[in-house]
Design brief:
Shape of chain A: globular
Number of helices of chain A: 20
Number of strands of chain A: 32
Helix content of chain A: 25-40%
CATH class of one domain in chain A: Mainly Beta
Distance between the termini of chain A: 50 Å
Strand content of chain A: 15-25%
Largest interface: A-B, 45 and 45 residues
Oligomer: homodimer
Structural class of chain A: alpha+beta
Largest sheet of chain A: 12 strands, antiparallel
Radius of gyration of chain A: 27 Å
Chain lengths: 764, 764
């Protein structure tokens, strides 16, 4: 009951029963999109516990001073109220047979079908189809087939645009112009309250009975924030009524319609509606499916043989990795829930650099570059944050939204179980490692792609500017060393710690990299050196970096070879964590202890020093990694969706294949698994990047180390073969791994590629 | 099925079946309140099509520039999610027997009970009780009884405060402070966005099993805009679990807590919670029921004998007339839907003066005075509107909200069926008769109550100031006459008409009354004359009034004795209106014709010249009334809830008793009747005043004419006896009417009362 994996060989995720209390899961994991639009798969007929959601990337708005900017939930155009012989169609009424909902991740089509008998006994067979076009970013198309089974039926349809949607009660839009054109095309203009982004929503219906297009005679309803059309059609027993609905969204933020007035957008949308009407659902579905094939499946094919579920899981990850990424616009980035829900408000975190970027770098470098350009374009916010905190350089926000928004982490969340007051969220103030994570992403991108143009325009500056921040951030200690006090590391169960290993090592890396590039620019790219020196005073900065790198305190392993996570962790008390290790829902420990108490226990929300080993894997000896792994793995609750894939990849590196596979399976089920509930607020974007990392970095053994490509594959017992492609400095390599063999082919073949495979250097 | 009148003899309105598609009716007509709070009777368990609503009188807020100010829908505290043995309680699931919902209008208590069998077969008997206290204006109390019928049950309750409520999508509140005190008391602070009114919402639960109070151990949930407690209780077969929930609302607009800071309000609300907890539901219900007895039923008893439904209807009207009136605060007035829904946004119209005021004047003069003080206090808005339109004096807004808001009529509504564009609402611009309606209300109030203090402080000034407006409003015509061009009269199916009879005659009356009072003040109250002359330049104004009254064009009857509604009406074409006269839902004609077309047809939305005859009944001869009645009644669709009672009262005056009774019955069923749907957005406040007018003005024959009291009763055939009380110049008179007799007693007896009964002058 619930999620059904019987058709995964056909790239289809199914739901085989309907539970009106558990709608969030499929709404999110079966959501549709194209990086511009994200549409939760809420059903056509409405339910009390539904969470409808339509998000347009980058259209951030701030509801009021008490809230942070968030991605607004746009007007809904997918709902359709159907009344069959006077009875409202709803799966909570009457009886439902043959129910399935299917997401075809290969074509991006959602289908739902059932045989429904109304409370009074009218029988209809219904099928609902829906796409968000990957070919036409602004377009949603729907098709509904209603077959009268054994009696004549009168179908009443009420359908249009509903602008009453909110983000958990916050209304981001002003009510605007509403129009019926030709008694057929419905249009609604909304404008975000603070950011003043205009949305032009347009929709039109087409009705067909037994293949004949019916003339539309709408009853029209215009109320506050909504505009609807009503149609009534009679069908005889055995006949099929088809309703198609074509919708489009244009906004004044869109680059592809830049400079158009609202009136021009309205006109354009009208034209779009007419074009969609003439194309029809099937043609729109077809061209979008072709686009999926070309843009995703041919571009970055991966194949796991030996386990169909694992194979599906990595494709499912790729499906969502395409939905979430605004490949069309460098002014926006990936939200922690993609575009599949209100969770994390559409904000971008370190997730992009550490968990998502590798996928795009290795499979779609153009899109990866957009993600990295975003960080450059959002420097104004990073400068503002640094200045606000009396630091220098670029201090990136922990949560990031529009380019100049700066820090947008909400200040309070959840409740303190002891005081009854909301908990203060410290990440926006002191989770500072994000700044070196951004620099690390720049470096990764540039080395793997060889995109020197990016570096010259943006990359060198970003690495210098972030290093300047770090030099200004350090504090002189009584021991003559420089320290980074009062931070939160990746392990958010520990607030206000000093000398967090991850933070200190990554800051050190950041400044080292800046010094390295300083020399490089001065020697090899004097013009760029001059420009950046003028802008950032590099010569002065260099001195600061040098001193800082020499004096920065870097935690060293204990006698037992355990790298201390921070200056307190190892001296905290141990408690029996088995209850929380076995939990079904994350965060159980916060129901028993408040954060202050958790701070006194050796317990981690997620991998902390382990992520450090993952990113800077060549600076720690194997025995430190091993001992630290054993210490921290036992104390990690994986209360973050980011944690599991890191553990899996590291377990691979350490030859712990069974454990690696176990963690991979767990990571793969975060959204795909049968648990109803955990995906309600949206999918876990980073975990999809993590799934790809488990497969290609972990079992596939791919890593960029010190600028070089290394492939050390090692398949889990369950797999017979793994094949994937990666793009290394512009050359697309096809890798095939079986139990005993590795083959790497250069599919591009325009440049020589040097790499190391299982310890042996090769040239392709 | 649906509304059930089997218990009306016990003052109880029932619903005998539950239809999840038709929730609005009972939510509105069974709503609870006390003039400060208005609470729609949405159920504890939630449904898709519910419209929850909690309104606090006078707390207007404007969502944004595109919208007008409206009464915001405050956070919900009545919802309770109940899970019984793991199954969510909902009447759309499982089976329900013995269902009833009952509103006791005598005590103001709502009760709902049923035997519910869950889909898996768990049987529980449930009873829900609820009051809004008439004794403690800030308080809502609820009680739920859950009896395990034949098996042990585990009950999970999730209940708290939900701040995600909106007004049809417009969110009026900033999210604010959320707190759990003692893991027991839940508090939530919201602040309106533009008007900056703080709301402190507080709630606390008490759980009892078989009479034993259970210790509360809440799981707490704090999210954006919501704060909830979760409780789990197990009951054995046969045991009854009782949940009581006590909630309070305080706002920074409240007079009774004026000057308190938010922190002080929070403290006060905490104290209130503790007091309510210790009192318990039964004591709160009891004291509130006593208050209903004293304040309403003993104050203004009415009894109709011979027809129980009519008797109930007038009590039902009185019930809602108490719910809707902010008797506690002169800075607010009655909304067109009372406090029972979002319809008309909580705004005050001419409904107050013409349809509602008579009830309060004759039964509760203190409250009537508050309503009239409101008009004085809102003069700043009226002055602003006049100035904005280049007129002088006080031009009252067609729709009125907070004192200095001025005109708040929305600019657009519905859709033009021809152009597909929203219709412009002209009332806010040109429905100008409201200004003389306000003056008329002042005069009525002062003459009937004899409240000279009111007149001296506010009344004379209001009548002068409104007359100054009218003198400045008139336009010189080519005929040497003054005209009032381009208005909407009470009949809103006719826009942009000239010389609307109602408008012109009432303007004339207004200026005449001002001239009369000018003389009176000058001669008898020179101090007041001096004060007002200084403020309003009365001497100058008097000249303008005199000329205006002489020259103002007053439409005269045709040869057929029909008073022309305006300069065009009688020359418009007639069409067959039978389709619309027979309609079940109002406004049918607007689906066939747009407003421009309707303007060319002899058709009326509501009584127009008939209202004029009703207000100024002594200036038109009987034959004009009769001929006009016949002409217009045939062409009136009663598409306004205000229309029927006017027709009924006039039919009484003309001796058309059968027709009068028919119209009365129709008026009485507007909200009380069995039609589901028409009350969704709230009850029809004016129609309740109209019901009282039908009874006391119409059949009871009471009228103030030229300053004198007249009682000409005439019972419909269906009634054997009618008794009621009215207060005339401070003396409470008890009137008893049977088929052949009229008796009037002075219950107060401190002053002589002169009146005319059935044409005979009497002195009591």
């Amino acid at each position: 009951m619930g999620m059904d994996y019987s058709r995964i060989e056909d790239w289809i995720l199914r739901e085989d029963s309907f539970d009106p209390e558990k709608l969030g899961k499929c709404e999110a994991v079966m959501s549709l999109g194209n990086g511009y639009l994200g549409l939760r798969s809420a059903t056509e007929e409405r339910y009390l516990n539904e969470t409808r959601g339509l998000f347009v990337a980058g259209t951030f708005n701030k509801f009021d001073e008490n809230e942070v900017t968030e991605l607004p939930n746009a007007a809904d155009m997918t709902a359709m109220s159907l009344t069959i012989n006077g009875e409202k169609f709803s799966l909570t009424e009457g009886t439902t047979e043959d129910y399935t909902r299917e997401l075809n991740i290969r074509t991006g089509e959602l289908k739902r079908s059932m045989l429904w008998t109304s409370p009074k006994g009218t029988k209809v067979r219904l099928a609902f189809y829906r796409i968000v076009s990957l070919k036409r970013l602004h377009v949603i198309a729907q098709r509904v087939e209603i077959t009268a089974v054994d009696s004549d039926v009168k179908v009443e349809l009420k359908s249009g645009i509903n602008g009453k949607m909110t983000n958990t009660g916050s209304q981001h839009f002003s009510d605007g112009d509403k129009r019926f054109y030709d008694k057929r095309i419905i249009q609604f203009v909304q404008t975000t309250g603070q950011s003043k982004i205009d949305f032009v929503d347009t929709t039109v219906h087409k009705l067909e009975l037994e293949g004949n297009v019916l003339p539309l005679e709408a009853e029209v309803y215009i109320e506050k924030r909504e505009i609807f059309a009503g149609y009534t059609v009679e069908a005889e027993a055995g006949q099929t009524l088809v309703i198609e609905k074509y919708s489009s969204v244009y906004t004044s933020r869109d680059l592809d319609v830049e400079g158009k007035t609202v009136a021009q957008l309205q006109e354009l949308a009208l034209e779009t509606s007419k074009e969609l009407e003439s194309l029809g659902y099937e043609a729109l579905r077809e061209e979008s499916a072709r686009q999926w094939e070309e843009e995703v499946w041919n571009l970055a094919p991966i194949q796991i043989e030996g386990n169909g579920m694992d194979n599906f899981a990595v494709h499912f990850a790729q499906y969502h990795l395409r939905l979430m990424v605004p490949a069309h616009d460098a002014r926006m980035n990936i939200g922690a829930k993609g575009l599949s829900g209100e969770g994390y408000k559409g904000h971008t975190f370190w997730d992009t650099e550490v968990f998502l970027l590798p996928y795009y770098i290795f499979t779609d470098p153009k899109t990866a570059r957009k993600l990295e350009e975003y960080r450059y374009l959002s420097l104004p916010g990073a400068h503002a944050k640094a200045e606000h905190n009396n630091y220098k350089g670029a201090m990136f926000p922990w949560e990031s939204a529009w380019l100049d928004d700066g820090e947008v982490t909400p200040e309070y969340m959840d409740v303190d179980i002891l005081t009854g007051k909301p908990n203060k969220v410290w990440s926006g103030f002191i989770e500072q490692h994000i700044t070196s994570d951004v620099a690390f992403g720049v470096w990764q991108y540039s080395v793997i792609t060889g995109d020197e143009d990016y570096m010259e325009r943006y990359g060198y500056e970003l690495i210098m500017d972030t290093a300047i921040f770090w030099a200004s951030r350090l504090e002189q200690g009584g021991d003559g060393k420089l320290h980074i006090n009062d931070v939160v590391g990746p392990d958010e169960y520990r607030e206000h710690v000093n000398d967090n290993a991850f933070t200190n090592y990554m800051a050190h890396w950041n400044m080292q990299k800046a010094m390295e590039y300083y020399h490089l620019l001065k020697e090899e790219k004097p013009e760029i050196y001059e420009r950046l020196n003028g802008k950032l005073h590099l010569d002065e900065a260099y001195g600061a970096w040098k001193e800082a790198c020499e004096k920065l305190y870097l935690p060293t392993p204990t006698e037992e070879n355990v790298l201390p996570q921070d200056d307190r962790y190892l001296s905290c008390r141990d408690i029996d964590l088995s209850k929380y290790k076995a939990q079904e829902h994350v965060g159980g420990i916060t129901r028993d202890y408040n954060l202050e108490q958790i701070n006194q226990i050796q317990v981690s929300k997620q991998a902390d020093v382990l992520v450090l080993f993952f990113l800077l894997e060549d600076i720690f000896p194997q025995e430190v990694k091993k001992a630290s792994w054993e210490h921290y793995e036992a104390r990690t609750l994986h209360d973050s969706s980011l944690s599991l894939s890191t553990h899996s990849v590291l377990a691979c590196d350490m030859g712990e294949k069974a454990m690696a596979y176990d963690r991979f399976r767990k990571a793969a089920t975060i959204d795909l698994g049968p648990f109803m509930g955990s995906s309600n607020a949206g999918i876990h974007a980073a975990s999809f990047g993590g799934v790809w990392e488990c497969v290609v970095y972990g079992f596939g053994g791919v890593r960029m180390l010190g600028g070089n490509l290394r492939i050390n594959p090692s398949l889990p017992d369950e797999w017979t073969k793994l094949s994937y492609t990666i793009i290394w400095k512009g050359q697309k390599l096809a890798v095939e791994v079986t139990k005993g063999t590795v083959s790497v082919k250069n599919l591009t073949g325009t440049k020589q590629v040097e790499l190391e495979v299982n310890g042996e250097k090769c040239v392709l």
